[in-house]
Amino acid sequence: MNNLTEKKQKWSDFINKKNDKEFLFMLHCSSHYHGVVRPPLYREYKNERIEWIIKTYNIMTKHHQIIDDDTIPFLDMTTGTEIFAESFGCKVHKPKNDMPFALPLITKADEVSKIKIPKVEDSSMAYLIEMAQELRKKTDKNALFKLIDIQTPMDISALIWDKTEFFPAMYDEPEAIKELSLKIQEFMFNFFDLWFKEFGDDFIAHYPNYYMEKGITISEDEIGAVSSEMFKEFFEEELHEFSCRYGGMGMHTCANSFHQWQNLKNIPNLKVLNIVQPLNIINKGYRFFGNDLIHYHGWHGTEWYNETAKPYKSIFDFYMETTEQAVEFSKGLKDKYNI
Question: What topology is assigned to 4-337 in CATH?
Fold first, then answer.
């Protein structure tokens, strides 16, 4: 299938369970990217990042034309996790040839009231809007964007507030924790309301790379460090609000979050779940969440379509070296499973 409109519709129908497809799959060819090195994800490398995004988009477009899988080309707006914390005043550490990350800004509850909600256009996030606008001018005006890294407001709070003090404050100063999270949430709503108005509702998830016709995708990792009861007090409402505001949610978590699964299952319109855990945990995830959502998990070994996964709708990645291998693999897969 080499028609982008048809591919998008296939993804939409699959994620919204409007077809009987058992799985979608994407192939990744390492040879396509030989010599294409991603520049550091720092603001001062903005121009180099734009050039890299255009190169990778052109590579993906050729892939789409040749290889019959479910990959959709996108403009890769990958960022580090620091971006929202930086917008609230955190300094950023920039290791050489590695991902940037935010340094804590506060350590005490009484510092929260001093934190102001920035305006998007005046914040450190503004350059990401500018990058996307420039990319639209230099490429296909209908090209999809892969979203920037999106943590939850509570996870971002744990970047702004030193974690050695943040978690104890959940017991000692819960209102301050909630105040900070609400400020971050308001700023995030302002940013994504502007983003979707400017660039459209459909996108490629920030991680992993699946298509969403509408909604929001989010990373949630701090839930592994708190109890189920604390999830309900600090995390539940904001997750529900994001899903309801944008019309559905996809979630990535690499936390040891087994004890939170029922809470995740209760999120309204949770469409896709990516659990990055050992295979035995992932197999439990298939059975627990069942057909309530689409499974896209962080294990892609040779037994990719095991007996546990078969009854459930899933997304899979496969890694190849050459185009020829990918074309042959795709044909074999489609013949075997009649897809």
Answer: TIM Barrel (3.20.20)
